[in-house]
Amino acid sequence: MPIWLILLASLGAVHVAADVLRLVATLTFGLRARPRGDLRRRYGSWAVVTGPTSGIGRAMALELAGRGLNVVLVGRDPAKLRDVAGAIARSHSHHGVRTKTVVFDFSLVSTVQGEKAMAALRETVEGLDVGVVVNNAGVAKPGAMFLHEVEVEPLMRMIRVNMLALTKVTAAVLPGMVMRGRGAVVNIGSASAEALPSFPLYSVYAGTKAYVGEFSRGLSVEYKRKGIDVQCQVPCLVETNMISRAMKDIFLSQFVVTPEEYARAAVRSIGHGRMCVPNMAHRVQLLGMRSTPDFVLNWYRLRLHLQQRAIFRSRRIQCSSRNSLFQRGYERRHGGRRSAQTLALMVARTAWWSAWDGAVAGQAGSGRRGGRVHVGGRGGGAGRRRTEWSAAEAAIACTHTCRPPFPAATFSFRTTVDIAAFSAWAATAFSTRTTTTDALQEMGGSRKRRRGAREEQRQIQHPGGYSIQSAARVRMGGSAPAAAADAVLRQQQPPWPFVALVIVGAIHVAALAFRLASHLCLCLRRPRDLRRRYGAWAVITGPTSGIGRSVALELARRGLNLVLVGRDPAKLRDVSEAISKLGGGGVETRSVVFDLALASTAEGDEAVRRLREAVAGLDVGVVVNNAGVARPCAVYLHEAEAEAWVRMIRVNLWAVTEVTAAVLPGMVARGRGAVVNIGSGSTEAIPSFPLYSVYAATKRYVAEFSRSLYVEYKSKGIDVQCQAPLFVATNMTSGVAKAGGGGDDAAAKRSKRRQRRWLSPLFVPTADAYAAAAARWIGHGAVCMPNLCHRLQWCVSRAVPDAVHDRVRLRENLRQRALFQRLRRRPPPPDDQPKAKIDG
């Protein structure tokens, strides 16, 4: 047997074994029931739950109280907090469970009121044996909308609640856990960021949940050795206030679980892995998602969210349109999960509708077409059946089938009726739900025929079937099969498991070869004319040094005028002069002074207004969101000041969102443009980045935000892309080398040699080399690694197990932490010598 077949089979066996191990681990964790009271004994006697007044948070608080844990409830509504505390006291008073409440509106985090609430939370948990923290609070408003349609303030509120509050609450409880040497942090993520390639029209929400997932991965590696389990739980659809009625009707009820069902599985999964999907129905759903190609999921999610967008926008005129159609007497349907409750609801509403229309109950058929109410059940196997209920004495029931505005839409039911304000969603959904029994029987018959055809094919492939077919061919005058074919049938073929493994291995090799070939083709092809394709102007943030400066110069070489956005006016003038010399006066530049660390503040709002004025009327074709910070470098979450994390979040993701939202309306109006967000290989090439958890989480937000925007705006002629570099020779990487280069002891010399090796041009390209590749890759894919050496490192990284990655990165980052601490303790140099500087 050829050696290459054996190698392909071995590669396929490795991938299949990895998938089987993941499946076995998932089933083991899902079916294994931990003893009651185990959480209290293992972690501590108190639990902190955020957002406990409804949905998952309320169910988690009750479930933890049922396990014997005292609960600290953190929410914004005092009345609802008292209601949950009363429910816990009534349900678990025999266990002696105590509760405490902290009023905290997470949308006010990093404000004066938010700091007071955070201080109250710290005082409440001080001295308590807090063992479990559940960061559940989250918002998804304003719902399914394009980014350029939304005001900035709702997006900033989402970022504060979903990310900033989670980070601050975790940092507040971690010191006590570290001191006691035990604890568990549970962050509620979302399948929108972990199971789907993109989540269009919810780009900011998906980005915040991607932040939660990456943040949890990094903290899990950091604090595992300190006895603290950090976990991100990934639910799919749960019946909460966040899921609207329209979404419940669109999705299959079998995969939408109740909060109580989810909470039981979630509490049982605490401590089992850093990423988990507690509910079994959700695991099945995620398995199907991962087996589906990305482009199919992107197409389906965009179509689905566009339908939701139409539903959300039509709520204000939904009732008037519904009543207008009812006045005209059109027959309507009411679909629900429980047929009995749906029927009772329709009977209760019939009298009101009849009275509103001025009709008498006994004359329901007069003036109307039809007189029957259709109840569609969706539970169990009733989703394909219809139960018809004659309403001779009542009017026709009406629900949420009207979704304007869709001019010239047609809704056809028994009688074709032209209605000027019906949504395509209503027609599609209800035509699907009313599939007749005859059609189902026909479909069943076709499946039987297909099974019979497959059985015939199997018989033909069998040697006996082959001989029968050969004899039939001879009788019909055909030539007999060649003797070679008979010999092949008699030969011993490789077993089918071996062939399957060869196919799996070949698929992975082909995918890797295709990626490398596409990269090489892109590097060798002629560069795009960015000015002609997208526009004459480019906006660049952080253009005063590193990647930003090099990209600005590269775009100027390609003939684009530049709008430079930075915080230092002197450095902006220096870059502008360098561009003028490079372009020979043919390239225009404009400067906007904007300290991105002030994003979402009054000063930041004024800077955004100046940016909008600067780009107004310009043919802005390219936007490069490059600005970013990594300070504080290599530090545990509980060791750094909270303001340092807030500044990093504002620069790395808040500013990206605001700048993108500022330039998108003009691009949409012109029907072309490109948005390039600089991410990081720390989120795309390695599983975690310990001691840089917040930095890696902000870059994960950028990547998920870009993926969703890419799907949203592709049809509008706008290319959105996240470029994920690994190490580049910038101030951010040179600061580490400077920190480790000082001193004359042997450890410092070894560190200097190590830094010289990994900062060599073979692994770390210069900023100019990276910028040349980055400009060439604009418009090619949602996420990319432009530099070839980075791409090769990524391919090698994919072959290394996650456990090895985590161990190596943790050791390296702990070494960097020691270097930075030693540098900070070093006495300052004399005034006549330059001071060492840490560029993060």
TrEMBL record:
Task: Please name one Pfam family that this protein belongs to.
Answer: adh_short
What PROSITE patterns does this protein map onto?
ADH_SHORT (PS00061)
For this UniProt record, give its keywords in alphabetical order, as a comma-separated list.
Answer: Oxidoreductase, Signal
Superkingdom classification of source: Eukaryota
Q: Where in the cell is it found?
A: Endoplasmic reticulum
- Family matches, as Gene3D superfamilies: NAD(P)-binding Rossmann-like Domain
Q: Which GO terms describe its cellular component?
A: endoplasmic reticulum
CDD domains registered for this protein in UniProt: 17beta-HSD1_like_SDR_c
Keyword match Oxidoreductase: yes
Coiled-coil-forming residues are: none
Q: Where is the composition biased (Gly residues)?
A: 364-382
* Basic and acidic residues composition-biased segments: 828-840
One GO molecular-function entry? ketoreductase activity
Q: Where is this region: Disordered?
A: 362-385, 436-465, 819-840
Residues annotated as signal peptide: 1-18
Q: InterPro entries, per this entry?
A: NAD(P)-bd_dom_sf, Sc_DH/Rdtase_CS, SDR_fam, VLCFA-Steroid_DH
Its recorded name reads: B-keto acyl reductase
